[in-house]
Amino acid sequence: MDNSRDIFNQALNNFTMDVASGGAIRYLAKLGYTVNEIADKLTYPAPIGVIKETVWKYYLNEGIIRLDWNPLQKEGQFIENVEFVKDTDAYGRTSFRRVVTKIPADDTQYIACDFGKELYVDENAFMRRLSVLDDKDREYILGLPWPVSTVYHIADDRMKRIADRLQLG
């Protein structure tokens, strides 16, 4: 009984946090704010871990960050971007449907990042390596929960600048 109550309370907490600040976090991430900048802008207090997780999930959902395949190899002609759309029927019932949009692979460029691996292997060396970045770019990298695997980040202006300074492949 306690386990199901804990699960319910955690789900309720997640829902409340998403309603209170999830949209604002995603909006600020879309504008290019770092995790720390987002934390400073929020009027509703949110733990930094929740902000990191929300930003990371937003980046995954939007295709800004890819984990599942190597977009540098361009295996097909299109990249599939998956999102879920909320629908409400005439009786007020809510459902979600999966919408897949195809983006031409030629139009999307990614940069391979091993930040999680580097941080795991030698944190001090990784921090020294990041010292060539300006404060905001360093804060951007350190504010995300990079996994210990290769991640592909869309080649926007920020990542191009970071890749250039860090001499990423």
Task: Explain what the structure shows.
- The chain is of the alpha+beta class and 169 residues long.
- The protein has helices at 2-30, 35-41, 48-62, 115-121, 123-130, 135-142, 157-166, and strands at residues 65-66, 78-88, 94-104, 110-113, 151-154.
- A three-stranded antiparallel β-sheet has the order 1-5-4. A two-stranded antiparallel sheet has the order 2-3.
- Helix 1 crosses helix 3, helix 2 packs across helix 3 and helix 4 crosses helix 5.
- The termini are far apart.
Record keyword descriptors for this entry.
169 residues; alpha+beta; three-stranded antiparallel β-sheet; 7 helices; 5 strands; 19% strand
Strand order of the largest sheet: 1-5-4
Order of helices and strands: HHHEEEEHHHEH
Specify Rg, calculated over alpha carbons: 18 Å
Rounded mean pLDDT is 83
The number of distinct helices, counting runs of at least 4 residues, comes to 7
- Major sheet size, sense and barrel closure: 3 strands, antiparallel
Distance between the termini: 52 Å
SS strand fraction? 15-25%
Helix proportion: 40-55%
Number of strands: 5
Structural category: alpha+beta
Based on CA inertia axes, which overall geometry fits? globular
Low-confidence stretches: none
